[in-house]
Amino acid sequence: MYISSRSRAPQPRQAPPPLVDNPFAAELFATGCAGFTSLGGTVVLTLEAARCDHSGETPVVERVVAGRIALTVAGAQALAAGLNQFLDQQGLAPARAGGNQ
User: Fold this and answer.
1) Under 8 Å CB-to-CB from 65, ≥6 apart: which residues?
2) Distance between CA atoms of 66 and 68, rounded to whole angstroms?
3) What's the rounded Cα separation, in Å, for the pair 28 and 45?
4) How would residue 101 be classed by pLDDT, with cut points 50, 70 and 90?
């Protein structure tokens, strides 16, 4: 067995590939996130939407699964960091939510 004591130099970050806009990409509307799970290195977000069932005499609001997003761990971390930064810039930082000011 050969063990090297040399440390690897950090690799320079590569620029992400260019973004190609797709006007036909599906859009999803959600009013919340029902939950998260981790499946073998993939983080899955289950999104929900409040929907009202008018089939009965008294309409009932229900939480209905609207879709799921599966991300690599790195993608989930980038999403969380980017979303927090965006919300902070808008004055909507999560730390201020729910009266935690």
Assistant:
1) 34, 46, 47, 48
2) 7
3) 13
4) very low
